[in-house]
Specification:
The protein is about 30% helix and about 25% strand. It is of the alpha/beta class. It folds into two domains: about 200 residues, Medium-chain alcohol dehydrogenases, catalytic domain (Quinone Oxidoreductase, Chain A, domain 1), CATH 3.90.180; about 130 residues, Rossmann fold (3-Layer(aba) Sandwich). Strand 9, helix 7 and strand 10 form a beta-alpha-beta unit. Helix 6 packs across helix 7 and helix 6 crosses helix 12.
């Protein structure tokens, strides 16, 4: 039986909502404050979602710690929750639906979109989810407003899956987009530099795609996780003969691709040199404007080793990502090590910015649970 869409007025009768909510407001460089702010009002094409879980993303950490955007803002964009109110024009999404959100969705009509450069689309660069102030994702709050132009990115979460799995769709999407960009062939050998949360996502997705992954990290515990997530070889990033080990692992041919999930110069140059002729060097972590480094450009030109960057998500991959995560073919739950209540968001940001051997993906929820997940 077809369910009738519930309008704003009907929602108000069925689900009383508060006039205010708690939110973590960015007030300047390194300054986060738990404040009481107005509940977002919605228009006819919007959703109002009660936040259940929001992942801490490195891009938000950089904005907060470097003060790269003007305050006030409410950050957090890896968001999942429950629809509590719908605009009169919204179809196929209903009060009570558990959903994962995407704050950036391209127009799919402009010159950039026709070239599949979605992250360069003007519409994509607009943030379509807010908890107040200048739209900035809003997931570090109790409720968010979801605007019409990002509704195409909303994904319903199956009953068997947790909200935290829904919150992981956006970061998994960004990594799958980068993997697809490499145009690899089956059984290619790929180096993944760094086995933090993003590096482990790369390791797992590349393994599922049939690649031989060589994973490196400085931390022994993360090297062990790299093995658990499917890496073919796991090497110590600090080993002085790492280059020789990479040479031997590929029987002297060189790597088909190298992926940098850390923004460090020495590993970048080492990863470039370890590529075979025609192999690809991909940057995933270099998101701070003004960073420069020295590279041997003859390797790009004469050795035909292209240098690629990959940033943000691709909404056309949503169904693929949802299938991988919700089927648990890629079980993301082992990535999530710590959950913090909203009032501990600053501590969550600090831990994500300065990880410990036992910390990976950090989640903020509107509840009060704080610390490691048992």
């Amino acid at each position: 039986m077809c369910r009738k869409p519930i309008s704003v007025a009907e929602n108000s009768r069925h689900m009383p909502l508060p006039k205010t909510m708690r939110a973590v407001v960015y007030r300047g460089k390194g300054d986060l404050r738990l404040e009481t702010v107005p509940l977002p009002s919605i228009r006819s094409g919007d959703l109002l979602v009660r936040v259940a879980a929001c992942g801490v993303c490195p891009t938000d950490i950089k904005k907060i710690q470097y003060g790269t955007v003007p305050p006030p803002r409410i950050f957090g964009h890896e968001t999942a929750g429950t629809i509590v109110k719908t605009g009169a024009l919204v179809r196929n999404l209903y009060v009570g639906d558990r959903v994962a959100l995407h704050h950036h969705v391209p127009c799919q009509k402009c010159h950039f979109c026709r070239h599949k450069a979605f992250a360069q689309c003007t519409t994509y660069k607009r943030t379509g989810i807010t908890a107040g102030f200048e739209p900035a994702g809003g997931g570090f709050a109790e409720y968010v407003r979801v605007m019409p132009f990002v509704l195409a990115g909303v994904v319903k979460i199956p009953r068997r899956n947790d909200f935290v799995e829904g919150a992981m769709l956006e970061p998994i999407n960004t990594v799958l987009k980068a993997v697809r960009q490499l145009s690899l062939l089956g059984n290619d050998t790929v180096l993944v530099v760094g086995q933090g949360p993003i590096g482990l996502m790369f390791t797992r997705l590349l393994t599922l795609a049939g690649m031989q992954v060589i994973a490196t990290d400085l931390i022994p515990e993360r090297r062990s996780l790299g093995r658990r997530f499917g890496a073919w070889r796991v090497l110590n990033a600090a080993d002085p003969d790492l280059s020789e080990q990479l040479h031997r692992a590929t029987r002297g041919r060189g790597l088909d691709a190298s992926i940098l999930t850390v923004a460090a110069d020495a590993p970048l140059r080492q990863a470039q040199t370890a590529l075979r002729g025609g192999g690809t060097l991909q940057l995933f972590a270099h998101t701070v404007r003004g960073q420069t480094t020295a590279l041997d450009l003859s390797q790009v030109c004469v050795d035909e080793k292209p240098l690629l960057g990959s940033y943000s998500a691709d909404v056309t991959l949503q169904s693929t990502v949802a299938r991988l995560v919700f089927s648990r073919q890629f079980d993301v739950r082992p990535l999530i090590t710590h959950e913090f209540g909203l009032e501990q968001t600053a501590a969550a940001i600090e831990l994500a910015a300065h990880p410990t051997p036992d910390s990976l993906k950090i989640i903020v929820s509107a509840g009060t649970a704080t610390g490691p997940i048992a």
